[in-house]
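> run fold Flavin reductase (DIM6/NTAB) family NADH-FMN oxidoreductase RutF
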Amino acid sequence: MYTNDRAHEEFEPVNHRDLNRELVQHEVITPSILYYGTPVLLLSTLNEDGTTNLSPLSSSWALGDCLVLGVGIQGKAFENLRRHPECVINLPDATMWEQIERLGRYTGRYPVPEEKRKMGFEFCDDKFSVSGLTPQSSIQVEPDKIAECPLQIEAAVQHIRIPEHTPFMAIVEIKALKVHAHTRLLSGLNKINPEEWNPLIYNFRHYYGLGERHGESFRAEK
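> ok
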């Protein structure tokens, strides 16, 4: 019969309190902002006169063809989405941070809402000019895409909800209709090469790109 020579050895019990003393300590804080590192996007929405408004966002996630956005209700994007439920998610790469930042102080709302005015926002009716970005016609929706953005997602709004616990923002659910990718990002039919895609990350109000690759998910396509 097989025997394990170590089966009857005595082991000292693990003292979890000792282990905890070796860990880095935490402190409870109340951060002024909680942008803990998410991709930046530029949201294209349709103005009343048929022109396109651009809004920098840093709150989004995607699963399949469903995307969820966090949008401030005092901005032009929210107003436009309620009136015309189409948009484009334009994803810039890390080299474009200065163009994104040029848009940061502007709003398409006129007059500028008081709360936004107090934060230093100014009205701008041509976000493409002020940012130096180039409009590009979409295929399935009316708002323009941004030519310089390596990834563009035309989408239709499915649902808008303002949560009771956070009434200054809206949760916007959208469905992807068309995805456009710069050819340099492609590694095959319908495949994005992660070695070529370097999204712009908003990290506690600072801009970052990706660092070195550490590994891959077991579900990563070979």
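The chain has a mean pLDDT of 90.
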